[in-house]
Amino acid sequence: MASNAETRRTTNEILIGKKPLMTYVTATLVQLANEPTVVIKARGRSITRAVDVAQIIVKRMGNIGYKIGSVKIGSETIQSEDGKVRNVSTIEVQVSR
Q1: In a 3-state reduction of DSSP, which class is residue 71?
Q2: Architecture of 4-96 per CATH?
């Protein structure tokens, strides 16, 4: 059963992980076809991949008119498997048409 956080996640969010870069670019473009704005979210080492996805969409698809909106950076406190508490950086990049 899904938790409340999972059921509240909106459809215009792309969560960046370890898949190939173009997978996320394609997913973002599909969402942009249906939604006016898409939020690309990442944390930790995936932040660079999220920035790359946003830049590929804006630079390569520039003639279509995509643009970067607000960029939010922050950090989350998480507990690792060994019990230590650590901070992980986060980013949210808004891309719109």
Answers
A1: strand
A2: 2-Layer Sandwich (3.30)
What does the domain layout of the chain look like in residue ranges?
4-96
Rounded Cα distance, 54 and 71, in Å: 11
* Residues of the chain where predicted confidence (pLDDT) is lower than 70: 1-10, 62-63
Is the separation of the CB atoms in 87 and 43 below 8 Å? no
Question: d(Cα 42, Cα 48) in Å, to the nearest integer?
Answer: 9
Whole-number pLDDT of residue 97: 84
What is the length of the chain?
Answer: 97
The conformation of residue 61, written as its DSSP 8-state character, comes to T
Contact predicate 75/89, CB 8 Å: yes
